[in-house]
């Protein structure tokens, strides 16, 4: 493929006038596409298009909006293989995972189609009348997403916003714009013009123009805490609501009564390596109880050494490459820092080469024995690197599990229900999985405690974030207010 993409506004791709930036195959370095480097002008046009489309879109019934979301889900499903292959090349993640991303996105379009219909306000009789609380969409929502799971991220923003009756201007990440722009082609066949607009570009150009735009009524951001703060400040300056989904450094806790250790090893490896560790949810701090530590870690190391590092487009690959050389060097830097701070390298730790994909940045699945205060256990690495931490005192382990600035997810493995539930209650995390990881059924609230974010996505309550509540009070007839003397 070698194509060009302008901004997608009013269901049309604009001709490219100014500068472009390339999409490159993260494994081979092959040039995939040229993409318009949009700025304030295109953002302004997209916001105007979304504003013009808003009254008509809001006026549709929830059933009518739901019907179009269901059509989008079907269209993505019909194109899933093609879109997954685009993502695999664009961001370097293995194609089988990228297909799952699209399946997850499809689930969200369907979930919010159903949710829109059941998203109700409330009402109650009052003396001589009635009180109603009605949910109304904000208007134009500005959404900004990262590169790691572009299909999921686009659906996380588009589905609830339009289900609730808003219109959208979405800025994809500059490292992962192609599949989102391809989504635009499907949107153009289904939605009225202007309901969903996609403006590619750099964060500090198109992104900043979107967050500063005076006609954007709500901001939704997923990405790093650093940029999340910038977006929150921009929203604060204009006093518009901002929802944030940010980073994570999630604990995965193995109790001595965890049961089938091979199954737990599989789960904890999946938690750390899925998405090549480039997941905000990744279970990157593995707390293993002293009683089973040696056996468990031996099994983990053996498992990591069986992982086949290979090309993203090869379905037999277990672990593909990172998104860029910059990200790869950053990950290796963290491994070096871990060793310098006293962590013991148990396996991996090096760049791997994949024949024919020498351009790509592949890193061996890496495991370090660490303590919770080390940099590798405190900072989000966003690569295939796991810190294993030994524990024996429950209270100390729990304090350490919570002793991190993030609070996105956590895993617990035990056959003792009481233990599991009490630990789940005490963990500072928006998502706690017991005896599994990444267990995200449709409707599961997805959001972070502490610096992992503000708001919950993927659940019925998400529609509250995309609507404001209006009270309408009705008296059956005017009666004296007993004010005037
Ligand atoms: P990033 O914050 O660098 O970029 C995210 C987006 O913000 C991109 O589209 C970028 O262009 C844009 N951006 C950058 N500067 C901007 C500015 N000044 N104004 C407006 N927009 C700007 O994040 P990243 O490196 O692409 O993604 C990795 C981060 O995302 C990790 O921290 C990860 O944990 C987080 N993440 C969180 C979730 C979640 O749901 N919690 C999901 C995926 C990724």
Provide a compact summary of the structure.
The protein is an alpha/beta fold and 485 residues long. 41% of the residues lie in helices and 22% in strands. It is globular.
Query: What's the CATH first level of the largest domain?
Result: Alpha Beta
| CA-CA gap between termini | 80 Å
Task: Flag low-confidence runs.
Answer: none
CATH topology (fold) name of the largest domain:
Aldehyde Dehydrogenase, Chain A, domain 1
The level of helicity is 40-55%
Question: What is the domain total for the residues?
Answer: 2
Strand order of the largest sheet: 15-18-19-14-13-21-22
Gyration radius from CA atoms, angstroms: 24 Å
State the CATH superfamily name of the largest domain: Aldehyde Dehydrogenase, Chain A, domain 1
Computed structural class: alpha/beta
Mean pLDDT: 97
Please give the largest β-sheet: 7 strands, mixed
Number of strands: 25
Percentage of residues in DSSP E strands: 15-25%
Secondary structure elements and their pairing?
Layout: E1 3-5, E2 8-9, E3 12-13, E4 20-24, E5 31-36, H1 40-59, H2 62-78, H3 80-91, H4 95-118, E6 122-126, E7 129-137, E8 140-144, H5 150-163, E9 167-171, H6 178-190, E10 196-198, H7 203-212, E11 218-222, H8 225-238, E12 242-245, E13 251-254, H9 261-273, E14 285-289, H10 290-306, H11 325-340, E15 344-347, E16 351-352, E17 362-363, E18 366-369, H12 375-378, E19 385-391, H13 394-402, E20 406-407, E21 409-413, H14 417-426, E22 431-434, E23 449-450, E24 453-454, H15 462-465, E25 467-475
Parallel strand pairs: 1-5, 8-9, 8-11, 9-10, 11-12, 13-14, 13-21, 14-19, 18-19, 21-22
Antiparallel strand pairs: 2-3, 4-5, 6-7, 7-25, 12-24, 15-18, 16-17, 20-23
Helix pairs in contact: 1-7, 2-4, 2-6, 3-4, 3-6, 4-5, 9-10
